[in-house]
Amino acid sequence: MEVKYALVHEWLTPKATGGSELVVKEILQHINADLYALIDFESSNPESYLYQRKIGRTFLQNLPLARKGVQKYLPLLPIAIEQLDLRKYDVILSSSHAVAKAVLTTPYQLHICYCHTPMRYAWDLTFDYLNSSKLGKGIPGIFTKYLLHRLREWDVISANRVDYFIANSQHTARRIWRCYRREAEVIYPPVNVDKFPFQSQKKDFYLTVCRLVSYKKISLIVRVFNQLGRDLIVIGAGEELNKLRHIAKLNVKIMGWQPEEVVTQYMSEAKGFIYAACEDFGMALVEAQA
Predict the structure, then answer these.
(1) Which domain covers residue 248, as residue numbers?
(2) Can you state the percent helix, strand and coil of the chain, rounding each to 5?
């Protein structure tokens, strides 16, 4: 009898193009699995490899501004992920950096979680999140701190729904142990190092490539290069894009999202690659060394 697989990821949107999404793509190349997510705007995107694919999703799909990300609906994420009915599958694979690992399963199913990180804003980045958000201060801050407290409790409980954890690095494996007291096997994520041709003659600029979110510390890099006066190229999309364009001086070029061939070109030509975040794995760092 053929084994039926389901693959669960948090969200599938054109702006979600990080390492976890590359892992999902790689898994689908090796395993014939039905795909599920909290929201999906990739199956309707003609430029996506998931175009016209049937993808299971939750009620969050129909909420206002869901296309721009469901993080704003944080209190609803645990409820939403638990609404996915996966009883017809033999093996559940979850690609999780937030709530995907929390899908409900039966005793007759095998659940394997590829964990990119425990939920950052509930654990390691709690105080960064509180300090950078208006919801972290005053009376709203009291409710936000209580919400994060309850979210941590739920996160630990839901970790018990996983039969086997896989981590993307030794660093993530240690965090999984610290948060959930669960052992994790380390399997590094896929990095296509062959697509970056060696170029001996470099140009006089530096490069950073990542999602433009606060914990990546791109604003720190931009401020440093503002002072140094050296040329810096920033490639990526995210919530801090406008902020970075506002603070960048003339020597810092904020390019936003760019297609793969443009990223490859700048990687080959850059004098150096700059990074400031504490990463779970850091696929861009490996690409820069290719």
Answers:
(1) 193-288
(2) 40, 20, 40
